[in-house]
Amino acid sequence: MADRDGTGAGGAGSSPGGAAPSAPAPAGDPPSVPAAPGARREEAEQDAESPVSEPEPGTSADADMELLRALLSRTLGLGGDRAEPVLDELSLAGVGRFIKSDRCKNIVCMVGAGISTSAGIPDFRSPGTGLYSNLQSYNLPYPEAIFEIGFFKKHPEPFFALARELYPGQFKPTVCHYFMRLLQDKGLLLRCYTQNIDTLERVAGLDPELLVEAHGTFFTSHCLRASCRQSYSLAWMRERIFSSLVPKCEKCQGLVKPDIVFFGENLPSRFFALLESDFGKVDLLLIMGTSLQVQPFASLISRVPTNTPRLLINKEKTGQSDPLMSLMGFGGMDFDSDKAYRDVAWLGDCDSGCLALAELLGWKEELEELVRREHAAIDAKAGDRDGGTPQKPWGDEDKDGGSPKKSLGDEGKAQSEPKKGLGSKAKAEKDPKKPQGGDKDKAENDPEKSRGGQ
Which range is most confident: 94-108, 229-243, 328-342, 383-397? Predict the structure, then answer.
């Protein structure tokens, strides 16, 4: 997920006393000749009277100052003219018209836990319902410990107990996932960068080549012993987790961990290999369901060209400019100032936002049909495998405000009415074979709603 922040002591080249040693005179310089006492006194008087001279125009100091002025003007909005707008209107409708124009050919999506909450999987940080608020039954020293690699190696049991509740295969992709599938099918999706580990992007049909699972995935697992690193499949890991076993390597009996990124681990190499090229040629950055609090993922918003529009679909505004972070090169988004020229925020749940955008693009019926068709196929497959009752079709789940058939004519209403409780839907999507414990705390904490994210 991300390493914890730290501060270093001292800087490169610093010395214990705080002063750098003076450089020796270059070889070949003529030896200095001592000046006469009178001359030394005259030079001292001149130095005391003469002001410090300004650097001449064209010097490196002058160029450095100009660069600093430009940086401050661009990142902090200090001085300078307002940037030329890149959208004809800073609204969802303006973004829709931009997507339909010939200027938009490459869309990059950045997504987090908020795109999966309507599937019954909670995000991390929502008060009361987020994953970190509902881990009391696992007796952790602090909530984040369940995803820390050091804690996991010593105490893997809490993570695997939680994994039984959040394991892939128990949930169906959301409207938001299928909106990205439409972008792919229409040749507009350059890449999807996801913080999620639920594999729902894969289930929705995104091409793995167009997917960067920045925080890893449950799709594969590996033995943690460096001398082994035996690989295991999703089915192999599922069998062990649902048998309440701590997965052990068949070759060396080492601990086996899903390939999700824990605190204290590096992000996948694919993340770093693709971001430079992707973010250099992106025409639209679509950010959905993420708090943008986890680095280095959150910093990606500052990597797009300055003329690239950025649309945030989220329950609240996030990723906004912070002067200190801007100076460090992590420029945020600007939705509200008089210098705003490319950033748009649509506030509400991600499914409603995607449906609203699809309607503006003329894709709404196509999106709804895609979701119904794919969910029916998932239900049929689950029924054939388990002999159980298929899950409720999409479009009938609705009494909690989650029905995609909800009218989107009033955008303000859609934005002000995020989804309500998802308990009934989550219950319908439980694995019928999963043991149902009677522990009251577990029932109240509902750890089934959990997953990595952000």
Answer: 94-108
pLDDT at 199 over 60: yes
Please state, in angstroms and as integers, the Cα–Cα distance from residue 202 to each residue in 193, 262, 441, following that order.
12, 21, 33
- 280 alpha carbon, distance to own chain's centre: 18
Structure tokens belonging to residue 217: 């995935």
Query: CA 327 to CA 74: how far, in whole Å?
Result: 10
- Give the pair of three-digit tokens for residue 426: 């989550």
pLDDT tens-digit series, residues 101-135 = 999 999 999 999 999 999 988 666 666 555 665 57
What is the average per-residue pLDDT within 202-227?
94
pLDDT category of residue 294 using cuts at 50, 70 and 90: confident
- Count of CB atoms situated within 10 Å of the CB of 17: 7
Which segments of 83-236 are extended strands (E)? 107-111, 189-194, 211-213, 216-223, 231-233
Tokens of 374: 């794919």
Whole-number Cα distances in Å, 371 to 42, 401, 436: 88, 17, 29
Give 169: exposed, middle or buried? Use CB within 10 Å, 0-12, 13-18, 19+: middle
Q: Model confidence over 62-96: pLDDT tens digits? A: 555 555 555 555 554 444 455 788 999 999 999 99
Q: Is the peptide bond before 296 cis (omega within 30 degrees of 0)?
A: yes
Sheet with 310-314: strands ordered across: 211-213, 189-194, 107-111, 284-288, 310-314, 343-347
Give the per-residue SS3 of 327-375: HCCCCCECCCCCCCCCEEEEECCHHHHHHHHHHHHCCHHHHHHHHHHHH
Q: Assess contact for 249 and 223: CB atoms under 8 A.
A: yes
Residue 108's SS3 state is strand
What is the chain's Cα-based Rg? 28
Measured CA to CA, the distance from residue 346 to residue 94 in angstroms comes to 12
Query: Residue 93: its pLDDT value, please?
Result: 98
pLDDT at 81: 52
Q: Is 155 a catalytic residue?
A: no
Round to whole Å and give the CA distance between 400 and 16. Answer: 64
* Per annotation, catalytic residue among 177, 215, 222, 375: 215
Alpha-carbon distances of 406 from 84, 99, 112, 287, 312, rounded to whole Å: 37, 24, 24, 23, 21
Around Cβ 115, how many Cβ atoms within 10 Å?
35
